[in-house]
Amino acid sequence: xxxxxxxxxxxxxxxxxxxxxxxxxxxxxxxxxxxxxxxxxxxxxxxxxxxxxxxxxxxxxxxxxxxxxxxxxxxxxxxxxxxxxxxxxxxxxxxxxxxxxxxxxxxxxxxxxxxxxxxxxxxxxxxxxxxxxxxxxxxxxxxxxxxxxxxxxxxxxxxxxxxxxxxxxxxxxxxxxxxxxxxxxxxxxxxxxxxxxxxxxxxxxxxxxxxxxxxxxxxxxxxxxxxxxxxxxxxxxxxxxxxxxxxxxxxxxxxxxxxxxxxxxxxxxxxxxxxxxxxxxxxxxxxxxxxxxxxxxxxxxxxxxxxxxxxxxxxxxxxxx
Length: 321
Description:
The structure is a single chain. The protein starts with a strand and ends in a 10-residue tail after the last helix. By secondary structure, it is an alpha/beta fold. 35% of the residues lie in helices and 13% in strands.
């Protein structure tokens, strides 16, 4: 496993991190706690030292906390998220900071997460939505600083609204944030336009989510794909969207000259090819997924020619809508 600096924090994180939404049974159907625990342990065995969870991920915080506490002697960094008090995802324009992240709510959420996880601190606490309208408004920053002084959190970050990378530029430039989490993948390359350069300039750690487009960039989403009732992918990949994804992936495979089952590997290597990226956090619900993804931390980014090919495969759309 290779490691990268998490911005200016002084923390070193595995470039393949662990996205723990899927193990919480709150949106993805099919995870079992026994296999999730095995997968988390295997990830740490293979050098993963960064796990991303959230208050809103069902049982995820509890499971992550259990494994981290069992790994005595291993330094495993844990990031979690505070949901907006108004429960609105993503943050719409015109919402006051006090409606989404008042200080009392932030503190209550962090202390609940600590209690549920059994941990004595979090290495990163992130707001689960963000709006640059909140820079300099509300008491959220004061509360964040207080929690840092109390030793309950080490770093503060935000999870940027889906497909809105420029909506955190003012925050990045303000100096009030340590990390940002953003969607960045072959389809959504927009963060590379302004956000990633700004993060490099200001020393902000970058955590990349949805590198595989919720499964779209694995090659396993094809026309007619269906998902279990209650699985969020049934909405994400509804109607003719699987057929659209299949066509887009086939075009990437053809242009790169790779085998269809190599698309996921190349999608992760695309993300890791950016020096601004600190870590990518694919969801890994099984030991098999852990072993396949961690094997890509081998120092082999995509070539300039491959990146040039992929630059032509931007696909602007929002399947979350």
